[in-house]
Amino acid sequence: KTSLIPLIRARRHALLLGVLLMGPSSTHAAQVQVMLFGQPCVLQGSSEGFSEAQLQAIHQASPEQAPISSDLPTLKTSLERLKNAQELPRELQKYRELRTARLEARLKFEEAVIQAHRRGDANAFSEATKPLIHARRHSGLMKKFKAAQKAGPSQKAWEDLRDYFVEFSGSDGEEDFHRVLSRLKIQYHCTFDEERGEEEPTETPKIKKN
Fold this sequence. Notes:
single chain; about 210 residues; mainly alpha; three-stranded antiparallel sheet; about 10% strand; disordered N terminus
């Protein structure tokens, strides 16, 4: 039997996004086939009118397609997707600005972390990160940095540094994205196969914090 783990993961992500776990409700509204967390879905606009090109741009710029992570190639790909979403409705421009700013800040931060690993220069790290976080929080960031340096090979100390930056580096725009889609009556409709198997998962699904 096929494991239920991918299905359960997709369901949990879908619930976080407010995705409708059903087929599209109207054949009159524009809709496009997309993949959402590895599952086939339909992104459908309201009957008031959205083109397929706009829906494709919305999905391309979505938090799922433009994720924020600690991985440099992923960050660069996310920025490129936001930049190339030319047909994005004007209502989502604020989201794009917030998401872009957060991605650019995260990219610079991760580059500073890489340089810190190579050179161990606290002053260089401080100068690189000052513009990326509020001045009141920067001293706390540097305390985390120095603790990570003292911890040597401990990855947990560097993750603590990263978590601190993520918490205090500003909005990532995700709430704006979902708020706008709700207002515009644009929804993901997903149908999951209920007959993949009846086993209980043997692994607890994990959601990595960025």
